[in-house]
Design a protein that fits this description.
144 residues; mainly beta; Immunoglobulin-like; 8 strands; Molecular chaperone IbpA; HSP20-like_chaperone; A-crystallin/Hsp20_dom; ACD_IbpA/B
């Protein structure tokens, strides 16, 4: 019996870096624990610009918390079901459940802004490399 190994969970929540050792160690446990709700995309929009977009229909800005602690960006949504009228659903296809998604960020990643339009949460990120790690031009002196 052959077993297929998927590397997709390794890259799904890692933005702006390739730390294979850390990812390989945690991929097996994290991929089993992670929920796919709400659906999200990770985009590279420029050389150092990234975006996370999440489909959070039914949530308002006050229902969602975004926190950054060290290299982990955490997005948490809490439902307000107690405020809704008691109704009988004939069919319930829209998920109304709390969620928590975590994304590991690379060194020098900065959260620029977060906004929500039409049920899509967009978190903009920027990689700011420190001056010491940027390439430097070295002048060549001419000696006679």
């Amino acid at each position: 019996m052959a077993t297929a190994l998927s590397f997709a969970p390794l890259f799904r929540q890692s933005i702006g870096f390739d730390r294979f050792n850390d990812l390989f160690e945690t991929a097996a446990t994290e991929s089993k624990q992670k929920s796919s709700f709400p659906p999200y995309n990770i985009l590279k929009t420029g050389e150092n610009d990234y975006q996370i977009t999440m489909a959070v229909a039914g949530f308002s800005e006050k229902d969602i918390d975004i926190t950054l602690e060290k290299d982990t960006l955490k997005v948490t949504g809490k439902t307000q079901q107690e405020k809704r009228q008691k109704v009988e659903y004939l069919y319930k296809g829209i998920a109304e459940r709390s969620f928590e998604q975590s994304f590991r960020l690379a060194d020098h990643m900065k959260v620029v802004e977060a906004d929500m339009t039409h049920g899509i949460l967009t978190i903009s990120l920027l990689r700011e490399a420190p001056e010491a790690s940027k390439p430097q031009m070295i002048a060549i002196n001419q000696r006679s």
